[in-house]
Amino acid sequence: MTKSSHAEGPSARQEIESGIVFFRGRLMDIRDATVSIATHALNYGTGCFEGIRAYWNAEDGELYILKGHAHYERFLRSAKILKIQVPYTVSELMDWTRAVLAANAFRQDVYIRPLAFKGAAAIKVALSGMRDEVGILATPMGDYVATDGLKATVSNWVRIADNMIPSRAKVTGAYINAALASDDAAMDGYDEAIMLSEDGQVAEASSSNLFMVRDGTLVTSPVTADILEGVTRQAVFQLARDLGWPLVERPIDRTELYVADEVFLAGTGVQIAGVTEIDHRTIGSGKMGPITAKLQEVYFQAVRGRDARYREWLTPVYGKEGHE
Ligand code: PMP
Protein backbone atom coordinates (compact mmCIF):
# COMPACT_ATOMS: atom_id res chain seq x y z
CA MET A 1 0.00 0.00 0.00
CA THR A 2 1.32 3.41 -0.88
CA LYS A 3 0.26 6.59 0.82
CA SER A 4 -0.72 8.01 -2.57
CA SER A 5 -3.52 5.46 -2.78
CA HIS A 6 -5.57 7.39 -0.25
CA ALA A 7 -7.89 10.10 -1.51
CA GLU A 8 -6.03 13.37 -1.94
CA GLY A 9 -7.48 16.86 -1.86
CA PRO A 10 -9.16 19.45 0.31
CA SER A 11 -10.90 18.70 3.59
CA ALA A 12 -14.63 18.00 3.66
CA ARG A 13 -15.04 21.28 5.58
CA GLN A 14 -13.99 23.40 2.61
CA GLU A 15 -16.85 25.49 1.18
CA ILE A 16 -17.86 24.76 -2.40
CA GLU A 17 -17.99 28.10 -4.19
CA SER A 18 -17.50 27.34 -7.86
CA GLY A 19 -18.01 24.63 -10.44
CA ILE A 20 -20.52 23.19 -12.85
CA VAL A 21 -23.42 21.19 -11.42
CA PHE A 22 -26.49 19.39 -12.72
CA PHE A 23 -29.77 21.00 -11.59
CA ARG A 24 -33.28 21.35 -13.05
CA GLY A 25 -32.46 19.06 -15.95
CA ARG A 26 -29.29 20.73 -17.19
CA LEU A 27 -25.70 21.69 -16.42
CA MET A 28 -25.26 25.11 -14.81
CA ASP A 29 -22.90 27.21 -12.70
CA ILE A 30 -23.27 26.31 -9.01
CA ARG A 31 -23.94 30.01 -8.26
CA ASP A 32 -27.17 29.71 -10.28
CA ALA A 33 -28.26 26.47 -8.59
CA THR A 34 -30.13 28.13 -5.73
CA VAL A 35 -33.41 27.57 -3.89
CA SER A 36 -35.88 29.67 -1.88
CA ILE A 37 -35.69 29.82 1.93
CA ALA A 38 -39.28 28.50 1.80
CA THR A 39 -38.07 25.21 0.30
CA HIS A 40 -39.72 22.26 2.02
CA ALA A 41 -36.49 20.23 2.29
CA LEU A 42 -34.61 23.13 3.85
CA ASN A 43 -37.31 23.54 6.48
CA TYR A 44 -38.12 19.89 7.19
CA GLY A 45 -35.14 17.84 5.94
CA THR A 46 -37.29 16.09 3.34
CA GLY A 47 -34.58 15.05 0.93
CA CYS A 48 -32.29 12.15 0.20
CA PHE A 49 -28.78 12.09 -1.10
CA GLU A 50 -25.77 10.02 -2.04
CA GLY A 51 -22.05 10.28 -1.55
CA ILE A 52 -19.94 8.79 -4.31
CA ARG A 53 -16.20 9.01 -4.86
CA ALA A 54 -14.32 9.19 -8.12
CA TYR A 55 -10.60 8.38 -8.00
CA TRP A 56 -8.04 9.87 -10.35
CA ASN A 57 -5.49 7.53 -11.95
CA ALA A 58 -2.63 9.61 -13.38
CA GLU A 59 -1.05 6.74 -15.35
CA ASP A 60 -4.34 6.00 -17.11
CA GLY A 61 -5.22 9.72 -17.36
CA GLU A 62 -8.63 8.58 -16.14
CA LEU A 63 -11.13 9.46 -13.44
CA TYR A 64 -12.98 6.39 -12.18
CA ILE A 65 -16.43 6.68 -10.58
CA LEU A 66 -16.58 4.06 -7.82
CA LYS A 67 -19.71 1.91 -7.71
CA GLY A 68 -21.85 4.62 -9.23
CA HIS A 69 -24.62 2.27 -10.24
CA ALA A 70 -24.97 0.79 -6.75
CA HIS A 71 -25.11 4.30 -5.27
CA TYR A 72 -27.79 5.44 -7.71
CA GLU A 73 -29.82 2.30 -7.07
CA ARG A 74 -29.81 3.19 -3.36
CA PHE A 75 -30.62 6.82 -4.30
CA LEU A 76 -33.76 5.67 -6.10
CA ARG A 77 -34.69 3.40 -3.17
CA SER A 78 -34.29 6.32 -0.74
CA ALA A 79 -36.43 8.51 -3.03
CA LYS A 80 -39.10 5.83 -3.19
CA ILE A 81 -39.32 5.66 0.61
CA LEU A 82 -39.66 9.46 0.78
CA LYS A 83 -42.07 9.62 -2.19
CA ILE A 84 -39.69 11.82 -4.14
CA GLN A 85 -40.06 11.55 -7.91
CA VAL A 86 -36.69 11.22 -9.61
CA PRO A 87 -37.44 11.39 -13.33
CA TYR A 88 -34.19 9.64 -14.33
CA THR A 89 -32.98 6.06 -14.56
CA VAL A 90 -29.74 4.89 -12.98
CA SER A 91 -27.99 5.05 -16.32
CA GLU A 92 -29.26 8.58 -17.02
CA LEU A 93 -28.01 9.66 -13.58
CA MET A 94 -24.63 8.09 -14.39
CA ASP A 95 -24.55 9.94 -17.72
CA TRP A 96 -25.27 13.26 -15.97
CA THR A 97 -22.61 12.48 -13.38
CA ARG A 98 -20.01 11.86 -16.07
CA ALA A 99 -21.16 15.09 -17.76
CA VAL A 100 -20.68 17.07 -14.50
CA LEU A 101 -17.22 15.61 -13.90
CA ALA A 102 -16.15 16.21 -17.50
CA ALA A 103 -17.56 19.79 -17.51
CA ASN A 104 -15.36 20.53 -14.48
CA ALA A 105 -12.40 18.83 -16.21
CA PHE A 106 -11.44 17.21 -12.91
CA ARG A 107 -8.05 15.50 -12.87
CA GLN A 108 -8.01 14.72 -9.15
CA ASP A 109 -9.96 12.73 -6.56
CA VAL A 110 -13.51 14.02 -6.20
CA TYR A 111 -16.61 13.49 -4.13
CA ILE A 112 -19.99 13.45 -5.89
CA ARG A 113 -23.17 14.53 -4.15
CA PRO A 114 -26.49 13.64 -5.81
CA LEU A 115 -29.48 15.20 -4.02
CA ALA A 116 -33.24 14.78 -4.49
CA PHE A 117 -35.61 16.79 -2.36
CA LYS A 118 -39.04 18.25 -1.81
CA GLY A 119 -38.50 21.53 -3.62
CA ALA A 120 -41.96 23.00 -3.10
CA ALA A 121 -41.97 26.39 -1.37
CA ALA A 122 -44.82 25.26 0.87
CA ILE A 123 -45.59 24.94 4.57
CA LYS A 124 -47.60 21.70 4.69
CA VAL A 125 -45.75 18.85 6.43
CA ALA A 126 -46.39 16.06 3.93
CA LEU A 127 -44.64 13.98 1.33
CA SER A 128 -47.29 13.47 -1.34
CA GLY A 129 -48.11 16.17 -3.86
CA MET A 130 -44.97 18.23 -3.21
CA ARG A 131 -42.80 19.39 -6.12
CA ASP A 132 -39.45 17.56 -6.25
CA GLU A 133 -36.00 18.66 -7.42
CA VAL A 134 -32.85 16.75 -8.34
CA GLY A 135 -29.26 17.95 -8.44
CA ILE A 136 -25.74 16.55 -8.68
CA LEU A 137 -22.62 18.40 -7.58
CA ALA A 138 -19.01 17.30 -7.39
CA THR A 139 -16.03 18.71 -5.55
CA PRO A 140 -12.38 17.74 -4.98
CA MET A 141 -12.00 15.99 -1.63
CA GLY A 142 -9.33 14.05 0.20
CA ASP A 143 -9.64 11.53 3.02
CA TYR A 144 -12.68 12.13 5.23
CA VAL A 145 -10.90 10.73 8.28
CA ALA A 146 -7.45 9.25 8.86
CA THR A 147 -7.37 5.67 7.63
CA ASP A 148 -4.59 4.26 9.79
CA GLY A 149 -5.83 4.30 13.35
CA LEU A 150 -8.89 6.09 14.66
CA LYS A 151 -9.85 6.75 18.26
CA ALA A 152 -13.57 6.20 18.60
CA THR A 153 -16.16 6.45 21.32
CA VAL A 154 -19.57 4.87 21.71
CA SER A 155 -21.96 7.81 21.51
CA ASN A 156 -24.76 8.42 23.97
CA TRP A 157 -26.80 9.61 20.99
CA VAL A 158 -28.87 6.62 19.88
CA ARG A 159 -28.95 5.72 16.18
CA ILE A 160 -32.34 6.59 14.64
CA ALA A 161 -34.62 3.59 14.38
CA ASP A 162 -36.07 2.59 11.01
CA ASN A 163 -39.62 3.42 12.08
CA MET A 164 -38.60 6.90 13.23
CA ILE A 165 -36.64 8.01 10.18
CA PRO A 166 -35.92 5.20 7.69
CA SER A 167 -32.35 4.08 8.39
CA ARG A 168 -31.82 2.39 5.04
CA ALA A 169 -32.76 5.57 3.19
CA LYS A 170 -30.06 8.21 3.04
CA VAL A 171 -32.33 10.99 4.33
CA THR A 172 -30.93 14.51 4.59
CA GLY A 173 -32.67 15.37 7.89
CA ALA A 174 -31.48 12.14 9.50
CA TYR A 175 -27.91 13.43 9.44
CA ILE A 176 -28.74 15.61 12.44
CA ASN A 177 -28.44 12.35 14.38
CA ALA A 178 -24.99 11.65 12.89
CA ALA A 179 -23.85 15.27 13.33
CA LEU A 180 -24.80 15.33 17.03
CA ALA A 181 -22.84 12.13 17.62
CA SER A 182 -19.76 13.02 15.59
CA ASP A 183 -19.59 16.58 16.89
CA ASP A 184 -19.71 15.47 20.53
CA ALA A 185 -17.08 12.83 19.79
CA ALA A 186 -14.81 15.43 18.19
CA MET A 187 -15.30 17.88 21.08
CA ASP A 188 -14.31 15.11 23.47
CA GLY A 189 -11.12 14.43 21.50
CA TYR A 190 -12.18 11.36 19.51
CA ASP A 191 -11.99 10.89 15.76
CA GLU A 192 -15.31 9.11 15.34
CA ALA A 193 -18.56 8.14 17.06
CA ILE A 194 -19.96 4.62 17.09
CA MET A 195 -23.72 4.52 17.47
CA LEU A 196 -25.88 1.94 19.21
CA SER A 197 -29.45 1.20 18.27
CA GLU A 198 -32.33 1.54 20.76
CA ASP A 199 -31.78 -2.02 22.00
CA GLY A 200 -28.18 -1.22 22.91
CA GLN A 201 -26.49 -3.10 20.08
CA VAL A 202 -23.91 -1.74 17.71
CA ALA A 203 -25.48 -0.13 14.65
CA GLU A 204 -22.70 1.70 12.79
CA ALA A 205 -20.40 4.71 12.98
CA SER A 206 -21.68 8.23 12.29
CA SER A 207 -21.07 8.00 8.54
CA SER A 208 -19.84 4.48 7.86
CA ASN A 209 -20.55 0.83 8.56
CA LEU A 210 -18.60 -1.03 11.23
CA PHE A 211 -16.82 -4.38 11.07
CA MET A 212 -14.95 -6.22 13.78
CA VAL A 213 -12.66 -9.24 13.58
CA ARG A 214 -12.98 -11.93 16.24
CA ASP A 215 -10.92 -15.12 15.99
CA GLY A 216 -10.34 -14.65 12.28
CA THR A 217 -14.00 -14.04 11.41
CA LEU A 218 -15.24 -10.70 10.12
CA VAL A 219 -18.47 -9.64 11.80
CA THR A 220 -20.82 -6.79 10.87
CA SER A 221 -24.30 -5.78 12.03
CA PRO A 222 -27.21 -7.03 9.90
CA VAL A 223 -29.25 -4.72 7.66
CA THR A 224 -32.06 -4.88 10.23
CA ALA A 225 -29.87 -3.17 12.88
CA ASP A 226 -30.93 0.37 11.83
CA ILE A 227 -27.91 0.80 9.58
CA LEU A 228 -27.53 2.41 6.20
CA GLU A 229 -27.06 -0.46 3.75
CA GLY A 230 -23.59 0.59 2.68
CA VAL A 231 -22.14 0.17 -0.78
CA THR A 232 -18.62 -0.15 0.69
CA ARG A 233 -19.99 -2.75 3.12
CA GLN A 234 -20.91 -4.85 0.07
CA ALA A 235 -17.45 -4.25 -1.40
CA VAL A 236 -15.92 -5.59 1.84
CA PHE A 237 -18.13 -8.69 1.54
CA GLN A 238 -16.73 -9.30 -1.94
CA LEU A 239 -13.12 -8.68 -0.87
CA ALA A 240 -13.48 -11.02 2.12
CA ARG A 241 -14.99 -13.73 -0.10
CA ASP A 242 -12.14 -13.38 -2.60
CA LEU A 243 -9.57 -13.51 0.20
CA GLY A 244 -11.25 -16.63 1.61
CA TRP A 245 -12.11 -15.02 4.95
CA PRO A 246 -15.29 -15.97 6.83
CA LEU A 247 -17.75 -13.12 7.32
CA VAL A 248 -21.00 -13.12 9.28
CA GLU A 249 -23.80 -10.62 9.68
CA ARG A 250 -25.07 -10.75 13.25
CA PRO A 251 -25.88 -8.40 16.13
CA ILE A 252 -22.81 -7.00 17.87
CA ASP A 253 -22.69 -6.15 21.58
CA ARG A 254 -20.95 -2.98 22.71
CA THR A 255 -18.33 -4.79 24.78
CA GLU A 256 -17.47 -7.13 21.94
CA LEU A 257 -15.85 -4.08 20.37
CA TYR A 258 -13.54 -3.71 23.38
CA VAL A 259 -12.27 -7.30 23.09
CA ALA A 260 -12.21 -7.55 19.28
CA ASP A 261 -8.93 -8.34 17.53
CA GLU A 262 -9.61 -5.61 14.98
CA VAL A 263 -12.29 -3.00 14.28
CA PHE A 264 -12.57 -1.05 11.06
CA LEU A 265 -15.02 1.29 9.37
CA ALA A 266 -16.15 1.06 5.76
CA GLY A 267 -17.84 3.81 3.78
CA THR A 268 -17.41 5.94 0.70
CA GLY A 269 -16.10 8.86 2.73
CA VAL A 270 -14.00 7.00 5.31
CA GLN A 271 -12.94 4.38 2.72
CA ILE A 272 -11.54 1.54 4.88
CA ALA A 273 -10.28 2.96 8.15
CA GLY A 274 -8.81 1.05 11.09
CA VAL A 275 -10.04 1.81 14.61
CA THR A 276 -7.30 1.31 17.19
CA GLU A 277 -8.96 2.63 20.34
CA ILE A 278 -12.57 2.63 21.57
CA ASP A 279 -13.64 4.29 24.83
CA HIS A 280 -10.01 4.34 26.01
CA ARG A 281 -9.52 0.61 25.39
CA THR A 282 -6.83 -0.45 22.96
CA ILE A 283 -8.15 -2.59 20.13
CA GLY A 284 -5.92 -5.58 19.39
CA SER A 285 -2.29 -4.54 19.40
CA GLY A 286 -3.15 -0.84 19.29
CA LYS A 287 -1.98 -0.67 15.67
CA MET A 288 -4.05 -1.33 12.59
CA GLY A 289 -4.48 -5.12 12.36
CA PRO A 290 -3.38 -7.36 9.46
CA ILE A 291 -6.89 -8.04 8.14
CA THR A 292 -7.74 -4.34 8.02
CA ALA A 293 -4.38 -3.56 6.41
CA LYS A 294 -4.85 -6.20 3.71
CA LEU A 295 -8.40 -5.08 2.94
CA GLN A 296 -7.23 -1.49 2.69
CA GLU A 297 -4.41 -2.44 0.36
CA VAL A 298 -6.69 -4.32 -2.05
CA TYR A 299 -9.42 -1.66 -1.79
CA PHE A 300 -7.12 1.24 -2.63
CA GLN A 301 -5.72 -0.64 -5.62
CA ALA A 302 -9.23 -1.52 -6.79
CA VAL A 303 -10.70 1.98 -6.56
CA ARG A 304 -7.99 3.39 -8.81
CA GLY A 305 -8.43 0.73 -11.46
CA ARG A 306 -5.21 -1.08 -10.57
CA ASP A 307 -6.80 -4.47 -9.93
CA ALA A 308 -8.48 -6.06 -12.95
CA ARG A 309 -10.66 -8.23 -10.69
CA TYR A 310 -12.60 -5.19 -9.53
CA ARG A 311 -12.70 -3.26 -12.78
CA GLU A 312 -16.48 -3.67 -12.89
CA TRP A 313 -16.75 -1.43 -9.80
CA LEU A 314 -15.56 1.50 -11.91
CA THR A 315 -17.00 3.76 -14.59
CA PRO A 316 -14.42 5.87 -16.42
CA VAL A 317 -15.38 9.50 -17.00
CA TYR A 318 -13.20 10.27 -19.99
CA GLY A 319 -12.91 6.84 -21.65
CA LYS A 320 -15.62 5.17 -23.66
CA GLU A 321 -16.31 2.01 -21.65
CA GLY A 322 -18.88 2.40 -18.94
CA HIS A 323 -19.87 -0.48 -16.72
CA GLU A 324 -20.42 -1.74 -13.12
N1 PMP B 1 -23.72 4.64 7.29
C1 PMP B 1 -23.96 5.96 7.21
C2 PMP B 1 -24.81 6.61 8.25
C3 PMP B 1 -23.41 6.71 6.15
O1 PMP B 1 -23.65 8.03 6.06
C4 PMP B 1 -22.60 6.07 5.19
C5 PMP B 1 -21.99 6.85 4.07
N2 PMP B 1 -22.87 6.95 2.98
C6 PMP B 1 -22.38 4.68 5.32
C7 PMP B 1 -22.95 4.01 6.38
C8 PMP B 1 -21.56 3.94 4.32
O2 PMP B 1 -22.24 3.84 3.11
P1 PMP B 1 -21.49 3.73 1.73
O3 PMP B 1 -20.49 2.65 1.85
O4 PMP B 1 -22.56 3.39 0.76
O5 PMP B 1 -20.87 5.04 1.47
Q: Can you tell me about this structure?
A:
Helix 2 (68-81) packs across helix 3 (90-103). The longest helix has 14 residues, at 68-81. The protein is of the alpha+beta class and 324 residues long. It contains seven helices and 17 strands. The protein folds into two domains: 20-140, 2-Layer Sandwich (D-amino Acid Aminotransferase, Chain A, domain 1); 150-288, D-amino Acid Aminotransferase, subunit A, domain 2 (D-amino Acid Aminotransferase, Chain A, domain 2). It is globular. Helix content is 24%, strand content 27%. The mean pLDDT is 96. It starts with 19 loop residues before the first strand and ends in an 8-residue tail after the last strand. Bound molecules: 4'-deoxy-4'-aminopyridoxal-5'-phosphate (PMP). 4'-deoxy-4'-aminopyridoxal-5'-phosphate (PMP) binds at residues 51, 178, 204, 207-209, 228, 230-233, 267-269.
